[in-house]
Amino acid sequence: MAYLRALLLPFSLLYGLAIWIRNRLYDWGWMKVTAFEKPVIVVGNLAVGGTGKSPMTEYLIQLLSPHYKVATLSRGYGRKTRGFLAVKADDNPATSGDEPLQFKRKFPYITVAVCESRVAGVKRLIAEGHEVILLDDAYQHRALRPGLAILLFDYQSVDKPKWLLPAGNYRDHFSERRRADLMIVSKAPMFSDENKKIKLRHLLGEKRNVPVLFSAIGYRQLTPLRPHPEMPGAILEADLSVLLLSGIANPAPLHEYIAANTGEVVELRFSDHHSYTPADVQNLIRRFGEIANPHKLIVTTEKDAQRLLIPSLVNLLADLPIYVIPIQVVFDPPDERLFQQTVLTYCRETLATG
Q1: Coil, strand or helix at 140
Q2: How far is CA 48 from CA 45, 116, 149, in A?
Q3: Dist. CA 226–CA 245, nearest whole Å
Q4: Domains of the chain, earliest start first
Q5: pTM here?
Q6: How far is the C-alpha of 76 from the C-alpha of 93, rounded, in Å?
Q7: Which band of pLDDT confidence, cut at 50, 70 and 90, is reported for residue 77?
């Protein structure tokens, strides 16, 4: 791995220079930046995937939707459509992308939209009467100036070397964290080491008066991929074997959680946003059949579920005990109070003056 990184380092240096120049052009006003009078909240990260942006966006939806007309906007990674699109619950990932479809199916009462141009998308949503716009994965979209930028870092990797692409997994310079209004260290253990918290707060630069908060992932009860009278909700048990099916950026925390609560975990892992095929399902069936324990089931993520529930796969999956494990963001109470207060105050004050 070190040898490969050394080979890729020149490309990382070129990439880093290009990103630095781009950021300075926006900072110096040589490239147009658009700001809005309505609350626009960006959730993002500096590394590639795996920091929990989607659960954080869902947390914000639940926090803000009782008070405001909320819309989410994202690019819709992996979709085969173009332009602005209001996502419908009966869409498929090829139309809208998997994460926007997940948002719409979980929160049908809000508007979920996708658009390559975040500026154009926000303008349209505001024109349609939305009061708060949540942008998922838009920290690097410098053409838009958010009113509140929430930057996520993974607990396990934030203090590791920060190599830029392609030698590493950082897509922007670590110094660009200075643009954040809130920094969240995500996927922390429920009972994090206080000394490490102090170390990470110092590393991220809390002395700049930007709060550094910590959140964990909470796993909820398993639910069937498709409702079925013979498949009620399931629980993880010590004598259970689980085949974990995942196509997400970082399934390690989920694997660890299932392994801690069951007797065996067999993993079938694909790349992030993988589009499942009938051949993949046949492989899944084969791997599941190889598990000797009769007390067994298949567990997958909410994001993967969107890519499994497509017409070409539904019949193939019909007889498999596939369960989805929902997740949610969990804060320590003091951090949660500060986070909610910051977000709600920003929205209230912006709407009062906008």
Answers
A1: coil
A2: 8, 18, 17
A3: 16
A4: 2-218+330-353 (3.40.50.300), 221-325 (3.40.50)
A5: 0.94
A6: 9
A7: confident
